[in-house]
Structure formats: structure tokens, C-alpha cells
Amino acid sequence: MKSLYVALLGVILSGCAAAPQVMSFYPPGSSADTSISWPPKPAEPKLEYAGQLLGESNFATAKDVEEGAGRRFLRWITGIGRSRSAIRQLLRPQSGIVDQNGRILVTDAGLPGVMVFDEEAAELTIWRDAATNQAFVSPVGIANTIDGRFLVADSSLGFVAVLAADGTPLSRMGGDVLVRPTGIAVDPADGRIFVADTPADDIKVFTSNGELITAFGKSGTGPGEFNGPTHLNFNQGKLYVTDTFNARVQVLTADGAPALSIGDRGLYVGNLVRPKGVTTDRDGNIYVVESYFDHLLIFDGTGQLLLPIGGSGSALGQFFLPAGAWSDDDGRIFIADMFNGRIVILRYLGS
């Protein structure tokens, strides 16, 4: 009897040999219908749905998306398993980037830490350390430097964590001058680092080595003045600043001079109340997360509204207190749908 039991286990284990893992942008329970687009047909689509990121559920074996019967039986007879709380999923995603190797890095204040989706390696990792013997508390903004390091602004710790390419903490910057850092961006031309210091109502500028150079702005409502700046984006020589409590996005030159103000305060779709994330596409269109109205608003380069996407909810095309936004060279637009615990991905289809 014992030999039969051992033989049965051998058969089960041989059928459960590890298969190659793959990363899918359409995890179980989400829509894989890439025909969903905005504006809706029959209008010519400008954006299409390209998937979403949730966490561990984006990864499965290439042989079988669902757990095989043999493995379930093995777990039953051995008691192997994990609780629901052990599943590595996004909780309160804030912002993110796509690095030079195609990895998608997402800051999450609920973990707290940085969740790294590596499609090529089919791996999911979580970076939890902001410094040696110091964990992240409230990571918000993230950027990568021109030499391959990562910068993570932790609003509660009051500094920017400098991480190696594998997430190992290297150093910290701004701890002596920053109050509550949130958004962060890098000028690829010279490596300067821009950090939104929300309660200070300014944008502090550092060298690539973390030395403070200057600060843009002061408290106020005029051009170049801020009231609670949060998210940042730098693209083609321009710095985009979400001036949250002034209900607008300000566009500055690389030297901090005001160039454009986007958005009007109001109660209609297309107005701004609590703007958060901001990013751009290859044609210079500007994407603004309006967190209060649960919308993604798309403006042209002059600040004219082109298209609203959203509404409160968890269905595809809806958001629940969205936060950051970012884009990549493949035309994808990422939205941190914070209270839905997911990253929604859209693809820009061109002018």
C-alpha cells in the first residue's frame, strides 16, 4: 500500500513539473477584447484598451493558465497552500514608469513598496526597502536616471530613495530640504532631477548626484505659482506640473519659466477639481487624471480638450480615485486606478 502511495505521488509530481511562466496583460477575470476603443465606434478610434496590471494574477504557466488537477490534489494531501493575504497584488497604486528594459515599475502606498512587472523574464518582484534597514512608508513618484538608477519619492519619509537597477537601496537625497515629496521627473538631457514638494508649493531641482540647485515657484495662483503640486512629467524640454489645489496643470520650460496653463475649475466633464497624474504621447497630447470626477482627460498641446474617458466605477473605462499616469515609447498610456487596485493600459493609435 505504501509503495502504491509513493508511486501515485510520483505520477502527480511528474505531471506538475514546473512549466515556463508567462506574463499576460489580460489576467483572469479581465477583458481581453482589444476592440474596445475611445471614442466609441463608429467614430475613428484614438485610443484602445490594451490590458491591465493587477499583480500575481498577471502571471501563469505557459502550459496552463489555471491550476492543474494534479497540483490541487497534491496540495490537498500535503496541506500546501497560501492564504489570500499572501497573494502579491496591487493595493493602492500611485504612479509608475517603464524602464529601458521594458519593465513596468509601479509605486504602491498600500504594500508599501514598488511592484516590478518584468514581461521578458516573466517575473514579479516587490521592492520594499527605501534605505538600509528602512522600509518604504508612502512611495508616490518614481523616475529613472540616465545612468540606470531609480528614484522613488516617499512622501511620509520626506526623502527620495535612490535604488540600483535590482532595487537595492544605494542612498537617499533631499532629506534635509524636502518636506513631503510626491512627484518626480528627470531631464534626460542633463540628468537634473525635479521633485514636487507638495506642502512647500514648489518644485525643487537637484543635480544627478542629488545636490540641490534651485527651486521653482512659490505659494499662489499666478503663473509659475503653486498650491499643492503633486505629479510631474518631463517631455521634450518641458516640465508638466499638476498644480492640484489650483485645479490646473502648468507647463514650464526646463528652466522653470511658465509656458502654458491647462484646465479650468468647474463641475462639468472636462473641468478640473483635483488633478493628479499627467503624461504625454508621441504627438504631444496631454493626459490628465481628474481624480475627483474619476476621469482621464486628453488635451492637445495647446490645452484644448479632445476627449474624456471615465466615470466612477470598476468596469472597463471607469475609475475609482485614479492617481498617476505615465506613457512609454510603444504608445501605451498607463493609469493608476488607485482604489480599484489596478493599472489600466490604453494604446494611442495616432493623430
| Average predicted confidence as pLDDT | 89
Q: What oligomeric state do these chains adopt?
A: single chain
Assign the structural class, choosing from mainly alpha, mainly beta, alpha/beta, alpha+beta, or little secondary structure: mainly beta
- Quote the distance from N terminus to C terminus: 71 Å
Low-confidence stretches: 11-17, 64-85
Annotation field: number of helices: 2
The residue fraction in helices comes out at: under 10%
Describe the structure.
- With 351 residues, this protein is mainly beta.
- It is 7% helix and 42% strand.
- The protein contains two helices and 29 strands.
- The protein has helices at residues 2-15, 69-78, and strands at 21-23, 37-38, 47-53, 59-61, 93-98, 104-108, 113-118, 123-127, 129-131, 134-135, 139-144, 150-154, 159-163, 169-173, 181-186, 193-197, 202-206, 212-216, 229-235, 238-243, 248-253, 258-262, 275-280, 286-290, 295-299, 305-310, 325-327, 332-337, 342-348.
- Strands 2-3-29-28-27 form a five-stranded antiparallel beta sheet, with no helix packed on it. The protein has a four-stranded antiparallel beta sheet with strand order 5-6-7-8, with no helix packed on it.
- Strand 9 and strand 10 form a beta hairpin.
- Helix 1 (2-15) crosses helix 2 (69-78).
- The N and C termini lie far apart (71 Å).
- Residues 11-17 and 64-85 have low confidence and may be disordered.
What would the keywords be for this entry?
five-stranded antiparallel sheet; single chain; mainly beta
